Amino acid sequence: MALMYAFQAQFSDVDDLMREAAHGRLRDHGSIVIEESGRIGPLIELLAGAQQFPGEYDSISFAGAFASKVREAWATRKPFGGGFNDQAGVFPLAFENPVETCDSAWQQWLLHAENAAKNRGFPAALVASLVGALGEMQDNVYEHSGAAQTGLVAYAVTDRSFEFVVADRGKGVLETLRQNPDYAYLPDAGAALAEAIKTGVSRFPTASGRGQGFVQLCRSMVTDRAELRFRSGDHALMLCPTNDPLNGEQHSTHTSDLAGMTISAIWRAEAV
Q: Whole-model pTM?
């Protein structure tokens, strides 16, 4: 009788599964069901890994409809989640930046994500700040990834949380920062992530004034109910910017290699 395992979609489980896939061992574990955890960030990382190691994920299935919708959106380049009652959605990115082309579909989708959060009772100023940071992260895909057409933006709203994810399968943070001679020395993606969240750090010269996107994201999340995860290459950086937006609690981990950059941000409502 074949064994079946169930895992919740948590980042730690996703890291373990990807590590097995990278070593060609994931198929040997039999059928695995990924159950919903209330987070979309881990699911999107896992689905990105499935694109990188497609044969290894044949035995993986997902509870709930969100993962299959993400897969379809990534494959067809068609967004979902902009309807009146939708509480989660994905917008796959195209070759051209939808902000620069004034894409009405992008504008409406983003406005719906913002309204969905406000309608659940999240403070309007906070939501506007987070959506602004999301837009900065989306723009970073076009600015730095070298493969914007692989990117996507996602959101999910519940009564207790507002989460968004921006992901791509491009160059990744290490290769990007090494284009700047000031950061050519960086040894690995972990060191690159630690630098990338600092003010003015980018592939462009410091005098250019670039490299503000991550800082804006961190500042918009300054609260003890916020959590950020940056994953690129073989490292992930968790950041809880509780007081100082750039020097909050940080935890870097070595993971299996995943192309590109994935940023997951969640803000949780205060417990009643």
A: 0.89
